[in-house]
Design a protein that fits this description.
Number of helices: 16
Structural class: alpha/beta
Distance between the termini: 43 Å
Helix content: 25-40%
Bound molecules: CIS-heme D hydroxychlorin gamma-spirolactone 17R, 18S
Number of strands: 18
């Protein structure tokens, strides 16, 4: 990495205690860490035992409040490289030059679950990026779904209360399949569009490396001439989009609750660096009212076919954190952390977010000095008259703590806009003070229907199943009915099929879908499939003496991560067995390669289960010898008998046209 300013800065804070003596926090060497100080061997512990008190007090205070939303997350360092000089649209310095590199830190998350919840749940994913630019920190605090449940920030506590586990018994964890969430949906119909996304395959991504990111809110780009554009931000994964199937996602939650965290960590360690292209959609100021959606409405997206994407650069995540707490947990993002050239709009969700993020850091990180934590520090110098407060680290050495002054020649000084000072875009604003919502925000169903119509049949089927699953868990029959009636505005097929599956009346014939002619093929995850096998994971199931060498080598030569699975641990033909049929599960692999039968019948039954499950989840299965292969699968899509075809099937990913699959 050319630009490693952030890495250099973090180095100063790193401590390696390997080989060092044990001391107290005051630096006093400790001669016994096994026994508290007692009055006699069987006597009471003494208050003067400063070492015991310090150790226990620190332990008692190890936890900080988890994030109220997005508590479960994982993060990595990387670098962003600008494709060009984009000064025609923004003054943002990190976009001012072809090849300019800026260090970044990205935290991925789920929204609803608590810090220890499973990775693979059905939920939106957070995708927050901190750019440590030469002109200050810029945070792009994004999600993997381009729209949101609500239009006004004042409703955020309501949607989150409804989504989180129910208050009487704190059940269910990290799931929307319960009464209060769906009651909120039915009675707050602005949620329709995002609910369609949340029920789609987008909400169960295969990997953080294989999902898109969206800034959701509408921001502004401003160039040096003061010309502005409305802007929406997108991250496009180089690996394209991949998702779990729902049965698999639920099983992974038990078999490996850290699945996404592990996938990101392991791939970065392996050198399979995830990459994402940063793109923007731009709308000219004068075209603010030229579309059939309001550009300020966060429940609407701008179809790519209508407002094309412009590529700005590429981000590569190439370094894992050294310490989860210090970096991933203490990082503080804020959509209000912007740099020159990026500004806000009146999007009423964004306006409220601008308050919430600082407010939440104050309680979570314990005071106003969280910007001094190593992970949050800008890489450029920063000076102002803010002083003191909890955990202040800076030692300010001057007497001047106010502006204006003469004793320090009126420094730190204000910087004129022409010389790099941040100046807000001078938007003209007028209006009465009202608690109201614009008429232009009141169409809740057109884009929900556009999304539905833009998807492939298999994606639509997954949405039907997801609605049926979620509503099938809702106990209040009237809530089920309200939801079914609501989604008849989006699709009669959707509402009628779900009604049948969950045992409520079909929606009233008077409720008909809103007509919309817009279709956006780009919304389908199968629109532009990326075929790849590098960094996918294959399990080879083999018994004693199976000649696995050549297959293993061929797969590894393609950059595939291979694990050897057998009935017990040890070695096969000199190759280490990584897992047994008990320590792993087919849901943790992108494909299986099967060798011969085991001597033990129970092992064969377990191996059959592996095959069945991989079959049901549409995954490629290769085999050398049909010994334990369920014959009825032979010749089905993605069931292959040689490595070359298996590799091709692995590149494709899922084989949804399997006649017997029940995933
Ligand atoms: Fe957030 N959101 N949010 N949000 N959000 C937080 O800030 C909030 C919204 C997003 O990895 C909190 O530091 C309000 C949209 C991400 O650390 C909190 C509203 C989008 C993360 C907060 C929204 C997001 C957060 C909790 C509606 C997609 C995790 C902890 C007005 C663009 C960042 C924290 C990380 C976190 C408030 C809606 C993305 C409470 C009030 C829309 C990725 O401040």
């Amino acid at each position: 990495m050319k630009n490693n300013k952030k890495q250099e800065q973090l180095e100063q804070f790193k401590v390696n205690d390997n080989g060092q003596p044990l001391t107290t926090n005051q630096g006093v060497k400790i001669n016994d860490d096994e026994h508290s100080l007692k009055a006699g061997e069987r006597g009471p512990t003494l208050l003067e035992d400063f070492h015991f008190r310090e150790k226990m007090t620190h332990f008692d205070h190890e936890r900080i409040p988890e994030r109220i939303v997005h508590a479960r997350g994982t993060a990595a360092h990387g670098v962003f490289e600008s494709y060009d000089d984009f000064s025609d649209i923004t003054m943002a310095n990190f976009l001012s030059e072809k090849g300019k590199q800026t260090p970044v830190f990205v935290r991925y998350s789920t929204v609803a679950g608590s810090r220890g919840s499973a990775d693979s749940v059905r939920d939106a994913r957070g995708f927050a990026t901190k750019f440590y630019t030469d002109e200050g920190n810029y945070d792009l605090v994004a999600n993997n779904i381009p729209v949101f449940f609500i239009q006004d920030a004042i409703k955020f506590p309501d949607i989150i209360h409804a989504l989180k586990p129910e208050p009487h018994n704190e059940i269910p964890q990290a799931q929307s399949a319960h009464d209060t969430f769906w009651d909120f949906v039915a009675n707050n119909q602005e949620s329709a569009h995002m609910v369609m996304w949340a029920m789609s395959d987008r909400a169960i991504p295969r990997s953080f490396r294989m999902m898109e990111g969206f800034g959701v809110n509408t921001f502004r780009f401003v160039n040096a001439q003061g010309e502005a554009h409305f802007v929406k931000f997108h991250w496009k994964p180089v690996l394209g989009l991949q998702s779990f199937v729902w049965d698999e996602a639920q099983k992974i939650a038990g078999k490996d609750p850290d699945f996404h965290r592990r996938d990101l960590y392991d791939n970065i360690e392996e050198g399979n660096y995830p990459q994402f292209e940063l793109c923007v959609q731009l709308i000219k100021q004068e075209d603010e009212h030229a579309f059939d959606f309001d550009v300020l409405d966060p429940t609407k997206l701008w179809p790519e076919e209508i407002v094309p994407l412009r590529k700005l650069g590429v981000m590569t995540l190439n370094r894992n954190v050294d310490n989860f707490f210090a970096e991933t947990e203490q990082v503080a993002f804020h959509p209000g952390h912007v740099v020159r050239g990026i500004d806000f709009t009146n999007d009423p969700l964004l306006q409220g977010r601008l308050f919430s993020y600082t407010d939440t850091q104050l309680i979570r990180l314990g005071g106003p000095n969280f910007h001094e934590l190593p992970i949050n520090r800008p890489v450029c110098p920063f000076f102002n008259n803010q002083r003191d407060g909890y955990s202040r680290q800076t030692i300010n050495t001057t007497r001047i703590t106010y502006h204006k002054n003469s004793m320090q020649n009126n420094t730190p000084y204000e910087v004129p806009a022409e010389q790099g000072g941040y100046k807000h875009y001078e938007e003209k604003v007028e209006g009465r003070k009202v608690r109201a919502r614009s008429e232009s925000f009141k169409d809740h169903f057109s884009q929900a229907r556009m999304f539905w119509k833009s998807l492939s049949p298999i994606e639509q089927e997954h949405i039907l199943k997801a609605f049926s699953f979620e509503l099938g868990k809702v106990e209040s029959i009237h809530v089920r009915q309200q939801v079914v009636d609501m989604f008849a505005n989006v699709s009669r097929t959707l509402a009628e099929t779900v009604a049948k599956n969950i045992g409520v009346a079909p929606p009233d014939p008077s409720i008909q879908p809103v007509e919309t002619s817009t279709i956006s093929p780009a919304l389908s995850i199968y629109h532009k499939p990326v075929l790849f096998s590098k960094s996918k994971k294959v399990g080879i199931i083999a018994a004693n003496n199976d000649p696995i060498d050549s297959i293993k080598n061929q797969l590894e030569a393609e950059g595939i991560t291979v694990e050897i699975i057998s009935d017990k641990q040890g070695e096969i033909m000199g190759q280490k067995i990584d897992q047994t049929l008990d320590t792993t599960s087919p849901v943790l692999y992108d494909g299986l390669y099967i060798f011969s039968k085991f001597e033990d019948d129970i092992a064969n039954r377990k191996a059959d289960m592996f095959i069945d499950e991989a079959y049901n989840h549409y995954k490629p299965i290769g085999f050398e010898n049909s010994g334990i292969m369920n014959d009825s699968y032979s010749g089905h899509p993605g069931i292959e008998t040689n490595v070359a075809e298996f590799l091709q099937a692995l590149k494709v990913g899922r084989h949804f046209d399997r006649p017997l699959a029940i995933g």
